[in-house]
Amino acid sequence: MIRSADSTGVLVVSLAALLLMAGCASAPPVVPVPMGAEELRRFSDAEAQLASPDAAIREKAGVALLSMARSEGADAVLMRLRSAPEPEVRASMVRAVEFTEDRRCFRALLDAVKDPDDEVKRAAARALGRFSRPNEVQAVVDLIREPILMPGEVALLLRTLGDGMFIQATPVLLAALDSPNADVRDAAGDALKNISGNRSGARREVWELWWDANRTTTREAVMERREGPEYDFNGPLLETVLRQLAADDPARPVVLSMLFLSPGRHAGPGGDIEQICASVRAEYPELDIAISPLVAEHPGLVDILAERLREASKT
Prior knowledge:
Helices cover 53% and strands 7% of the residues. By secondary structure, the chain is α/β, with parallel strands linked by helices. The protein has three domains: 1-21 and 222-315, 3-Layer(aba) Sandwich (Rossmann fold); 38-112 and 120-128; 132-214, Leucine-rich Repeat Variant (Alpha Horseshoe).
């Protein structure tokens, strides 16, 4: 991911391509290895402790299960996070996810913000602040924009964005300043103070000027991916990102940072990327998209790789 430090109002989209793209290569399915006797005992003990009346024991058990790197462990935590009748159990599972930052549970945290219990909502919003990948921050922003969300839930998520210093979420914070709900407006203002470092507060017009001077941000995009939250780690599709950016602000320039080693069918002349850009431009003619050279064409790449190799050989 390339981050831009200038203040020209340009958005940089880093388009990554791996030799074997995650979630897209045709690899044989992985056959799970059965648990050994000791691992099965630890799993059973931790699963039983999820029902403990002691919150600390429940959370420790949830952390233990998530740390096993077994799907069974995550499934046990997720089942209770989503459907345990006791809100204190659901809250304990949220805190276990927050501690481990287990991305298998990210979607369940988004759902937990709409939990009927206020403590579960607060715990889920706080836990979401630990997930800082671009697609995760965008998922929180998308949730805020859902019309079914209650004002209190929106306010919790706005504060999460501010606590996480997620500057790329500034547009949704600016929009929230116009909310008819005072709690939402206050949460948006507090979040902008955290992100900008301006603790004294400001009018909407001042925040707009600040954002115009600091709005260069980076978004991730990929060319291929499978459906399902388990593949969210490799980001949204390029066409999805471009259309979203165009819908939000078609006058904002976009730079595609091409993290490819060779052209291929995606990055070559007349390839998928050029076709996608042409399709989006046809719908949004005012959108300015600049495509960078491939990262492999940069003269400093070989020196960087050689330096990394020397560093690795010292360890």
